[in-house]
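Let's practice the habit of predicting before peeking. Look at the sequence and jot down your guess about where helices and strands might fall. Then scroll down.
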Amino acid sequence: MAIVALLVLFLALLPIIHLFLTKQRSSSKRLPPGSLGLPIIGQSLGLLRAMQASTGEQWLQGRIKRYGPISKLSLFGAPTIFLTGPAANKFIFMNEALVPQQPSSLTRILGKRTIIELVGEDHKRVRAAVMQFLKPDVLKNYVGKIDREVRHHLKMNWIGRQTVTVLPLMKGLTFDIICSLIFGLERGPLREGLGKDCADMLAGMWAVPLNLPFTHFGKSLRASHRARKVLTRITRERRAMVAQGQVPSSEDLITHLLTLGGEDGTNGLTDEEIVDNAMLVLVAGHDTSSTLMTFMMRHLANDQVTYAAVVHEQEEIAKSKAPGEALTWDDLYKMKYTWRVALEILRMIPPLFGSFRRALKDVEFDGYLIPKGWQVFWASSITHMDANIFQEPCKFDPTRFENQSSIPPYCFVAFGSGLRICPGSEFARIETLVTMHYLATRFKWRLCCRDDAFVRDPLPSPTQGLPVELEPKNKEQLMIVK
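Done guessing? Here is the structure:
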């Protein structure tokens, strides 16, 4: 117990020691206004409580009102600078001295060799490898496979049921798509276990990084260890198959990464890089798309005008298909209005509340110092809900995205921006449009609970997971889905 107490005390003093050394080194420059708060904890609990109460944006606006668009605080065990506004977004996304830096809790869960952690040539090399698999020219070949996963999901979980709870079903669907398309992992106990571990990992990613048996973070670390063992075993099995020429390079992401060769003829990525980035794809792809589709269903249940327009677009596409024929890449490009609805959902309720960068060296913004090693925190909702950028920001209006070039740069940042823009945005678009096509053409739905509020934990989650009453539109159509 004495050793544990000394360790906790040492960790508690780290932010103070770091701040003291930074001030000594840069005494001629000003830090932004604000307070680092309590050691280790800082303002983490306040932000997390606000997110869970769905008042995270108000919490940040309170800081802006008190300190202005730049301030210092401590989040998740590290001294942090909070920046807001379009100019700040551009500074963050385009400054090579600021590299993605997730909370230490997230890094310890996902690994140190993901594309959100790597810098310089390592980042370019690994990102290029992942992007080769996620680029449109490759993904368009998998629309039919995603279509089959969606139909199977509807058959097993929606058809014949009067009520369903949307969020957990959407998470199950996106997880199955990832397992099939990204990992080549078939249905069964292994996939089910990985799904549970994925949910447990997410619960501790934005937690105070105390690895104790009773903490969310401790539970997430244990789940991460189990998931990593599974993905490591898959990687080794794929490596052996590739060596024997048994699997084509386009079969799944892990196989694809294994077949990439370096200039010297060796594999360009290490096993650690493959597993870490598979972990990243597993978590990022599992929850962001499922959240988007859940909130699309939530909004369409309350907005009959938008619902009718989405249904009309999707039914016109359905009329052009033969019975049982899968959607194609060309069909997705006809779903322009449906995707605008999705973008407007992302503007108003972005799955990712905010993110972090780390300063590789001392940099300045707006006359203030951002010390080397400090975190920089940004939140998408600050510009998304700015009335000077989006007129009547609280009004749901998909027409905002009819001409996306009219939106000022660095204002709509649901997928980030710059060289580190989300590599999975096209993948998210495909699975979202395929899923919404079958839901809109096969079902009507009504919300079961009057309270349609949501909390962030850390992603937005509707009350009770969004239970809805289902009404099939056409029994013959449902038989085709089967």
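How did you do? The chain has one domain: 2-481.
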